[in-house]
């Protein structure tokens, strides 16, 4: 994948975000999209090779649309200024998300504002063995890779059914359980980018497995 060429296209799109411009450059977009799908297929195979529980997700299935949903977000531009995909998309679990953007790229995983039933399952797991989850997210290599959990809306008090002095109250107040690792453009352009991606995936696995077990068992 020629990420420098992709970045150049995305920068132009960012400055000329309209259907008229995209129509003029549709051939370039489709060529880059096809190349990105091929790269995703390679990544998919690499992840399947290191994770026996990996749910194979071909690039065409994992890639996200470049169009923004203007029905729900009418003030957003017509097109996103990044290419993105979700891999390891087993039904009913949190996927592994990657985004290649203009100024930086990111890999993320976990669950963003899951529905109440799923969120309750996570909270029940934390009530049962939250110390195990804390060991995962407080591991030195994990914190070096991701830092803290993704910051999002949190309850100001305890969730229903849990006391305010619960030992895991800080975690129980979360509405989102996700982590993010960001890459500079320089890192994306290097030959070892896929190997770095694999490293991030490995580090994220215990975190995602805990959450997926909580919502599927």
In short:
This protein has 217 residues and is of the alpha+beta class.
Q: Which SSEs are present, and which pair or pack?
A:
Elements: H1 3-15, H2 19-24, H3 26-50, H4 59-62, E1 82-87, E2 96-101, E3 104-111, H5 116-138, H6 140-146, H7 169-172, E4 177-184, H8 185-189, H9 193-216
Antiparallel strand pairs: 1-2, 2-3, 3-4
- Whole-angstrom Rg: 19 Å
Proportion in β-strands:
5-15%
Helix content: 40-55%
> What's the number of domains?
2
Summarize the structure in words.
It contains 9 helices and 4 strands; from the N terminus they run ααααβββαααβαα. The chain is of the alpha+beta class. It folds into 2 domains: 81 residues, no CATH class; 115 residues, no CATH class. It has a 4-stranded antiparallel beta sheet. A hairpin with an 8-residue loop joins β1 and β2. α3 crosses α9 and α5 crosses α9. The radius of gyration is 19 Å and the shape is globular. The model has no long low-confidence stretch (mean pLDDT 91).
Which keywords apply here?
217 residues, alpha+beta, 2 domains, four-stranded antiparallel sheet, 13% strand, globular
């Amino acid at each position: 994948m020629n990420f420098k060429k992709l970045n150049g296209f995305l920068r132009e799109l960012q400055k000329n975000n309209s259907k008229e411009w995209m129509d003029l450059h549709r051939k370039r977009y489709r060529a880059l999209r096809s190349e990105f799908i091929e790269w995703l297929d390679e990544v998919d195979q690499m992840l399947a090779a290191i994770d026996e529980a990996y749910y194979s997700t071909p690039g065409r299935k994992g890639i996200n649309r470049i169009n923004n949903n203007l029905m729900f977000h009418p003030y957003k531009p017509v097109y996103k200024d990044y290419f993105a995909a979700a891999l390891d998309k087993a039904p009913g679990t949190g996927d592994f998300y990657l985004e290649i953007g203009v100024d930086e790229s990111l890999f993320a995983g976990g669950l963003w504002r899951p529905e109440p039933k799923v969120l309750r399952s996570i909270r029940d797991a934390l009530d049962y063995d939250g110390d195990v989850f804390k060991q995962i997210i407080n591991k030195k290599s994990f914190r070096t890779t991701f830092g803290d959990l993704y910051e999002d809306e949190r309850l100001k008090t305890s969730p229903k059914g849990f006391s305010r002095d619960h030992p895991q109250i800080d975690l129980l107040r979360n509405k989102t359980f996700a982590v993010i690792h960001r890459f500079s453009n320089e890192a994306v352009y290097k030959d070892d980018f896929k190997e770095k991606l694999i490293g991030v995936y490995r580090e994220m696995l215990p975190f995602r497995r805990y959450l997926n077990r909580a919502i599927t068992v």
